[in-house]
Predict the 3D structure of the following.
Amino acid sequence: MKIIEAINLKRDFTIGKGIFNKNKKTINAVKGINFHVESGEIFGLLGQNGAGKTTTIKMLITMLAPTSGTCEVLGHKTFGEEKQIRKNINFIFGGEYGLYRRLSARDNLRYFANLYKVPIKDRDNYINELLELVEMSDRADTPIETFSKGMTQRIQIARGLINKPKILFLDEPTIGLDPLGAEMLRVTIKKINSQGTTIFLTTHNMYEADELCNRIAIINKGEFLILDTPKNIKISTGIDEKDTLEEAYIKIIKGAKNEII
Amino acid sequence: MKSSSVLWTSFILQMKQSFARPMFKYVMLVSPFLSSVILGEIYRYAGRGDEYFLSYVVLGSGLWSLWGSIIFSSIGDINRERFTNTLSIIFSSPTDFRIIWLGKILGNTFLSVISFFISVLFSSILYGITISFNNFGFVLLSLLITIVSFIIISISTSYLLTLSRKTTLFMNCLEFPFMLLFGFAFPVSMLPTPIMYFSYIFPITWVIKLLRSSFSENLENFGYYLSFSILTIVLFIFISHLLYKIIYKQTKILGTLDMV
């Protein structure tokens, strides 16, 4: 069952806004991409910095309106029918931001639980479970501003799971995580996926994408270069399926700039 | 989860967040002393009597402090939340953004009212002004309406600022011009006529008149000012409702909810 569908999805940004600014420039961040994500799938979106990954995610999570094209999540349009989507999805952006840094981890999670309408009777137990899951129970009542980047990122993960989403969007979630933290995240992703959550993941970590994703799309300058399983992507670039995805990725980005599959 | 719960948790979260910030502590606790001295010295040098001191130094500095606290908290919070990427997260949550933001503004306003009372207390002691009133109920009512009018202006302004990333610039531009426009420090009748009429659109201009009237011996204009205060507050509730509808779409079209 299609849980996400994008048809000819485009997004432009105008740089140099203002009435008196004559040097306006339009950047085509996403140039008409087509894809769908099946329910229960882990879908990876790979690409260079500025390729259009985050813009695509922002359109899917109802944060950004598409310039044109159709974008549907859980059967609802992401621009105009946001209310039906938001309670069933969540998202995690990489990096240290996205939390109230002067508040404790527990206070942050309680607040977001309220915003996501988690019933109060279940809230505190579930928060404890999440803190255990991300191995932060011992620091639950410490302000976020005292945390390392990796610890903050773990709380972000707990925040992203606060409403038990049907779809979890992860935008470079392992940025700043140490190898053990990244491993913990991968285990968590597999676990929640096995419980039925669909995952939409962007990452620069090819090992992570190869290990986790059922299908991968590689985006470059707003256009898809390829969309297939990791195994088929390797085969299509002429490398052995036992080799790393990174080799296939570099080959595709360097050699197939104008090939739209 | 009821809206009242989100309103309450946003209110509490905002107070914890704001009070933890050194800048807010300065604006809330130190700035009232400065505004009291500045206005007090202006009126002392001009040789004005006690009536002016009560209206434009004691109440004026209190309102100036309240406005300053609100500018650098409620309105400035748009920028802080945008920078820390929480603005886009709360905006994209299933809860109506208006409820979340109202909770935050209520939290900030609650703290900002403290700076009003610090300023009023300090300036009245420093310049030896006795605060007297004929009807405590009128004073209480006018204070309540004053707070409501500041809340509604904060909501409208902060909604507008979600559309731009230049919030810090606007935030600094708002303090002094609007202090003069609303008539905190000087009567609005001193303003050029078109600007004076423009100032009457804002509820704060009327609630200041209402507040001053409640402290004076002559209460005959109280009902008149009360009517215009309520009328302009209703107007701004309507404006903020319209603004929200516009910004709800525009922020997603312009992509101004975060820094990237």
Remarks:
- Strands of chain A lie at 2-15, 25-38, 42-47, 68-73, 76-77, 89-93, 167-171, 198-202, 215-220, 223-228.
- The radius of gyration of chain A is 19 Å.
- Chain A touches chain B through 35 residues (CB under 8 Å).
- The mean pLDDT of chain A is 90.
